[in-house]
Design a protein that fits this description.
By secondary structure, the protein is mainly alpha-helical. The chain is 69% helix and 6% strand. It is built from 5 helices and 2 strands; from the N terminus they run E-E-H-H-H-H-H. The protein has helices at 17-28, 31-47, 52-68, 72-91, 95-98, and strands at residues 6-8, 14-16. Strands 1-2 form a two-stranded antiparallel ribbon. A hairpin with a 5-residue loop joins strand 1 and strand 2 (14-16). 0% of the residues are buried.
Length: 101
């Protein structure tokens, strides 16, 4: 049976729970986070020093911390790349030709 669990965001957007989990897992497996996540897990598994609730809460703060460092320049670069990718996928245009319009 397929997992049909849903999550509702503060803006009332519905997401499949599996998609939310995949998104968070992907974020935690990137360069800015992976070392801190691995350290946390090693401390938990080897030392049994951390209560599972501490392990559970740490990734939330880590993701918020990383996203919170993004500047307008970062968001502009991200959205520009997304737009270029969409134009290339939908129109077959190479990103270099986009700025020439």
């Amino acid at each position: 049976m397929a997992d049909t669990a849903q999550r509702i965001s503060p803006s009332e957007t519905r997401y499949a729970a599996a998609d939310v989990r995949a998104f968070i897992t992907d974020a935690l497996n990137t360069a800015p986070a992976i070392e801190r996540v691995q350290e946390l897990l090693v401390n938990h598994v080897e030392g049994e020093q951390l209560h599972p609730s501490v392990v559970q809460g740490t990734p939330v703060g880590l993701i918020e911390d990383i996203v919170g460092t993004a500047t307008n320049e970062d968001w502009t670069a991200i959205t520009t790349q997304l737009i270029n990718d969409a134009r290339e996928a939908l129109l077959g245009e190479e990103p270099e030709t986009i700025g020439a319009r």
